[in-house]
């Protein structure tokens, strides 16, 4: 190993350590403390006394369980006797009235409460330790917002491994997808996916046939054969509106294109795959699409082009960072949303890369505090932030509601 490489590696570690220390300037604690449990009896008294960052959760929630270790780390950093902030949590299965009062409609919901204030500020960023830490310091005003934003970007780009989980390694051509790997796996290309439940008799009967199909196509790079256990990964199955088992969907670039309803023999399934690949190839040729099968019709904006683009009509803008896993999962859906409004001169679907020098100040001015942030503008004015489900239908409906309400005025 060369001396230059060793020096670079040491320098990188030093810079990462410095950045993370700066991100925690308001704490400096090392004590191992547990998260504090707030209840309906203690909540008001606690948020009056000190700043509180609260996780509203349900014990059965998978996202809450995955966040648990990170939330504990956050508590170890901040929960000390003389700290000006407490890291806490509320069990919404016990204190459901309290959660309703704070508009908790999904789990986990994270809110920061400044001491003495009953209304909290919702955290909308990526749920990792550096993102949560920078958010806290931003709320506390420990360091300037511009510096926080810059450190946040530098830390994630240079130090923090925040990549989307790699697509799973197929076994004999069959990929078993999870909630973490699904979106990165299906985001590009052609996919034939079985959504199933282990207890389902029809699924059990199909299982060896599905394995044979995957094995027979394992050397065909144009399509992947996968499966998703809906008893384990309900959110994925709900997004694709799975109503029964097994459901076999053909997905292209993250979008559901067709539902297979034919016979479930190996020959019939393989014939279907060939037909869908041929049909997709013909459609791509007729539409004049690019070689990767996508039409790049989402506007990429910078500080120079932003105002001019949003000054007329409806503009739906995604503020993102290339390293952000949630942004990567949203990308193909955002492209598809652009397709839907391609012919509508009154609607612009756009995106802003907040890591670019030409856009960083713009993102700060537009109050972007996490990725992705989705804002809707009308005639140059920001009128709404989108916080709903990020499916194509939900995003499309959101834009149409604003477009129709404007037309009715």
Automatic annotation (TrEMBL):
Lineage: Eukaryota, Metazoa, Ecdysozoa, Arthropoda, Hexapoda
Annotated signal sequence range: 1-28
Keyword Signal: yes
Swiss-Prot/TrEMBL keywords: Signal
Name this protein carries in UniProt: Thioredoxin domain-containing protein
SUPFAM superfamilies listed in its UniProt record: Thioredoxin-like (SSF52833)
Gene3D superfamilies named among the record's database cross-references: Glutaredoxin (3.40.30.10)
InterPro entries linked: PDI, Thioredoxin-like_sf, Thioredoxin_CS, Thioredoxin_domain
Keyword Secreted applies: no
Sequence intervals crossing the membrane: none
Domain of life: Eukaryota
UniProt record similarity statement: Belongs to the protein disulfide isomerase family.
Natural source organism: Vespula vulgaris (Yellow jacket)
UniProt GO cellular component terms: endoplasmic reticulum
């Amino acid at each position: 190993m060369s001396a230059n490489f060793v020096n670079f590696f040491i320098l990188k570690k030093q810079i990462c350590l410095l950045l993370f220390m700066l991100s925690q300037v308001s704490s400096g604690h090392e004590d191992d403390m547990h998260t504090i449990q707030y209840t309906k009896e203690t909540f008001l008294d606690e948020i009056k006394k000190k700043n509180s960052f609260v996780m509203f959760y349900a014990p059965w929630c998978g996202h809450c369980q995955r966040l648990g270790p990170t939330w504990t780390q956050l508590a170890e950093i901040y929960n000390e006797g003389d700290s000006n902030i407490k890291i806490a949590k509320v069990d919404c299965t016990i204190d459901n009235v309290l959660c309703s009062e704070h508009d908790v409609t999904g789990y986990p919901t994270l809110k920061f409460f400044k001491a003495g204030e009953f209304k909290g500020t919702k955290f909308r960023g990526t749920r990792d330790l550096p993102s949560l830490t920078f958010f806290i310091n931003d709320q506390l005003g420990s360091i300037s917002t511009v510096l926080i934003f810059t450190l946040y970007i530098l830390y994630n780009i240079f130090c923090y491994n925040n990549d989307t989980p790699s697509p799973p390694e197929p076994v004999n051509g069959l990929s078993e997808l999870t909630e973490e790997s699904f979106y990165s796996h299906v985001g590009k290309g052609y996919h034939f996916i079985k959504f199933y439940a282990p207890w389902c008799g029809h699924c059990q009967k199909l299982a060896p046939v599905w394995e044979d199909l995957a094995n027979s196509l394992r050397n065909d790079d144009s399509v992947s054969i996968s499966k998703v256990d809906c008893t384990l990964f309900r959110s994925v199955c709900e997004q694709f509106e799975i109503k029964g088992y097994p459901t076999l969907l053909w997905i292209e670039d993250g979008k559901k294109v067709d539902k297979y309803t034919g016979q479930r023999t190996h020959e019939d399934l393989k014939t279907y795959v060939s037909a869908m690949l041929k049909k997709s190839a013909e459609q791509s040729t007729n539409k004049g699409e690019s070689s990767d099968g996508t039409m790049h019709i989402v506007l990429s904006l910078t500080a120079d082009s932003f105002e001019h683009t949003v000054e007329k009509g409806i503009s739906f803008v995604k503020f993102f960072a290339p390293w952000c896993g949630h942004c990567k999962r949203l990308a193909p859906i955002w492209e598809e949303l652009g397709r839907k409004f391609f012919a509508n001169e009154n609607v612009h679907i756009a995106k802003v890369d907040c890591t670019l020098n030409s856009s960083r100040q713009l993102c700060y001015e537009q109050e972007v505090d996490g990725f992705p942030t989705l804002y809707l503008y009308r005639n140059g004015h920001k009128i709404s932030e989108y916080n709903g489900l990020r499916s194509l239908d939900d995003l499309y409906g959101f834009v149409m509601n604003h477009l129709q309400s404007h037309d009715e005025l």
